[in-house]
Specification:
- This protein is about 35% helix and about 25% strand.
- The protein has one domain: 3-Layer(aba) Sandwich (Rossmann fold), CATH 3.40.50.
- Helix 3 runs parallel beside helix 5.
- With about 230 residues, it is α/β, with parallel strands linked by helices.
- Strand 1 and strand 2 form a beta hairpin.
- The chain contains 7 helices and 9 strands.
- The chain binds adenosine-5'-triphosphate.
- Keywords: ATP-binding, Cell membrane, Lyase, Membrane, Nucleotide-binding.
- This is Phosphonate C-P lyase system protein PhnL.
- GO terms for molecular function: ATP binding; ATP hydrolysis activity; lyase activity.
- It comes from Allopusillimonas soli.
Amino acid sequence: MNSIMQVRGLSKTFRLHQQRGIVLDVLRALDFDLMPGECMLLQGRSGSGKSTLLRTLYGNYLPAGGSIRVRHLGAMVEMVGAEPRQIMALRRSTLGYVSQFLRVIPRVSCLNVVMEPALARGMPRDLAEERAAALLARLHIPERLWQLAPSTFSGGEQQRINIARSFIVHWPAMLLDEPTASLDAKNREVVLALINSAKAAGSALIAISHDDATHRAVADRCLDIAPEEPAHA
Ligand SMILES: Nc1ncnc2c1ncn2[C@@H]1O[C@H](COP(=O)(O)OP(=O)(O)OP(=O)(O)O)[C@@H](O)[C@H]1O
């Protein structure tokens, strides 16, 4: 089977200009391939670079070196050094990113926030609304909240809305930053079931999770991204 992502020699450093130009070597020569339908968990102590890796893979950070190739519309596309419009094209239909926090848009209702990615892909409005409602119900968001803007919602409610929004469409590759972090056991089970359904539909996932239940339920393998202390130059 063809991989969905190929990472070779990936490294990322931060230079702290305000602090005597100190350089942090956070990611050092990472290599991995990600296949459709598999979930790889990122492991490593706090501060080892797990979030940095997700952000680098999503094109938010420019790596110091290496290559990130992603299968997009049938061809492998190099993300390192790609034009912003190429990165945006990948983000529209190939590469999904599920952060821990919902980016709240003022005055847009919860139902519309969840439907938006489906509408952007051209799904008819009634079908998008039906899917959004089913996801919100499954994630135990009370129906009385659906027409409200989520800015005043609790942290866990906002996280579930972000999950619903991310799983309403199919992503060939998904990057998940602690998708179950603020959730109770009942909602965590729903998120794990959504992850497993996405895998069954062929999505490849890279996830950060500190929780053993998530590990057991969805992980096919783990990547320890920084077995040693980072070097400070
Ligand atoms: N934008 C940035 N500028 C400078 N240094 C950064 C930046 N982002 C992260 N770092 C540093 O890079 C290292 C890795 O941070 P990162 O957030 O990726 O770790 P993590 O493994 O996700 O940690 P945790 O498990 O605690 O969330 C840390 O030492 C952090 O201080």
